[in-house]
Design goal:
By secondary structure, the protein is an alpha+beta fold. The chain has eight helices and eight strands. The chain has two domains: 133 residues, no CATH class; 89 residues, no CATH class. The protein has a five-stranded mixed beta sheet with strand order 4-5-6-7-8. A three-stranded antiparallel beta sheet has the order 1-2-3.
Length: 245
């Protein structure tokens, strides 16, 4: 089980390492301003902004889509310099007025922001209307970080807590911190698992950095099943008994 957990962390990547999970969000397509640009894995870019672009929608769907609507307006006002491409491919599939309403899905617009953010982190030239999108990336990242900070602040730390005390506080709190096994990642940073009962979610965290956040409505598996599948040997047995199906 410990080996499985190590592989789980390796697969997900850490907040400061890039390629392991810097994948497109839901769609492999993207709209960009550079006709020669390619949306692909590029350096260590899967950090705070990338996580926020891909996952803020799981926290605040309406406000996130409102920001994407603003991005859509920016793109549509620059119809002479918009190109529709597939992840990893330089070929232009559609451009300008040939791009349809269906090409502006939340997933594709999120990929557009992720592409721009990758370029920004790698100090690559941000061209045309892509410059106008940068402030929205910062707003999305700040909102995401604020929400996750709130989650951690309200979480009760079960590390070194007896079963009796853990059971007594369970009904009084909606989020809990459990120290992970292994306790540190390959960089020597302490790992902990934060379980949010109220929102049916959990996240893995290192000191000051978040590795990955999951939410139950992104799949058909509920929180307890997720915890059992990945963390049954890590989380105290009594805590698993208290988490409702």
């Amino acid at each position: 089980m410990v080996l499985e957990f190590k592989e789980f962390l390796k697969e997900r990547g850490s907040f400061s390492l890039g390629r392991d999970n810097d994948k497109p969000r839901g769609s492999k397509y993207v709209i960009i301003a550079d006709k020669d640009g390619v949306y692909s894995y590029s350096g260590d870019t899967h950090g705070l902004e990338s996580h926020a672009i891909k996952h803020l929608i799981e926290f605040e769907k309406d406000s996130y889509k409102h920001r994407l609507h603003s991005i859509r307006k920016i793109i549509m006002s620059n119809v002479d310099s918009i190109y529709f491409k597939k992840f990893g491919d330089s070929k232009i599939l559609r451009q300008g007025t040939d791009i349809t309403v269906g090409d502006f899905s939340p997933e594709i617009l999120a990929n557009t922001l992720d592409y721009i953010n990758d370029k920004h982190i790698n100090n690559e030239k941000i061209v045309g209307w892509e410059q106008e999108c940068l402030p929205y990336i910062k707003k999305i990242a700040n909102k995401y970080k604020g929400l996750l900070d709130q989650l951690e602040n309200r979480a009760f730390d079960l590390t070194n807590i007896s079963e009796e005390e853990g059971r007594s506080v369970f009904s009084k709190h909606s989020a809990f911190i459990v120290e992970c096994v292994p306790k540190k990642d390959k960089k020597g940073r302490r790992l902990k698992l934060i379980i949010d009962i109220k929102n049916q979610s959990f996240l893995i965290k290192t000191f000051k950095q978040i590795n990955k956040t999951f939410y139950s409505f992104t799949s058909h598996v509920n929180l307890k099943e997720k915890l059992q599948n990945k963390f049954v040997k890590i989380i105290p047995e009594y805590f698993m008994d208290l988490v409702e199906l």
